[in-house]
Amino acid sequence: MALQELYTKYNRVWIPDSEQVWKSAEILKDFSPGDPTLHLQLEDGTVLQYPVEGPGQLPHLRNPDILVGENDLTALSYLHEPAVLHNLRVRFVDSRIIYTYCGIILVAVNPYKQLPIYGDGVIHAYSGQNMGDLDPHIFAVAEEAYKQMPIWEVH
């Protein structure tokens, strides 16, 4: 399937914005190679013609709503700057979750305040668990690192 075939009516894209960095827009008309513009509608209802100079100039596709707020960025259909920033924003702003996985990497959003997520109860909850069994957390990464440590025998 050609990339242009994904730019069809009702699909959504991210377009650059000078104030918000990225804005979401819905495609109003199927895009065909050679079309000079992509017909879009922003979330505020504004209709615009987004200029397309070539296949490489098409805006980033937006992930389906079912994937919004995923706890592992590698589960997203489209992994690019606007998708990552949106997912982190949804997790942090809407759900107050500061940790997100990206495969075996832990991404943390600094809340600039103390959170009650480091007590003994949380330590015990992650103890002995596999990474991915529970929500992303620094304790899950630490537990995984501990389990993966080589055992050295002293002779």
UniProtKB/TrEMBL annotation:
One Gene Ontology term from the biological process aspect of the record: actin filament organization
Superkingdom of this protein's organism: Eukaryota
Residues annotated as domain Myosin motor: 68-155
Pfam families from the UniProt entry: Myosin_head (PF00063)
GO molecular function: actin filament binding; ATP binding; microfilament motor activity
Keyword Cell cycle: no
Keyword ATP-binding (UniProt): yes
PANTHER family linked: MYOSIN (PTHR13140), UNCONVENTIONAL MYOSIN-VC (PTHR13140:SF313)
Example of a GO cellular component annotation carried by this entry: myosin complex
Keywords: Actin-binding, ATP-binding, Motor protein, Myosin, Nucleotide-binding
Protein's UniProt name: Myosin VC
Family classification: Belongs to the TRAFAC class myosin-kinesin ATPase superfamily. Myosin family.
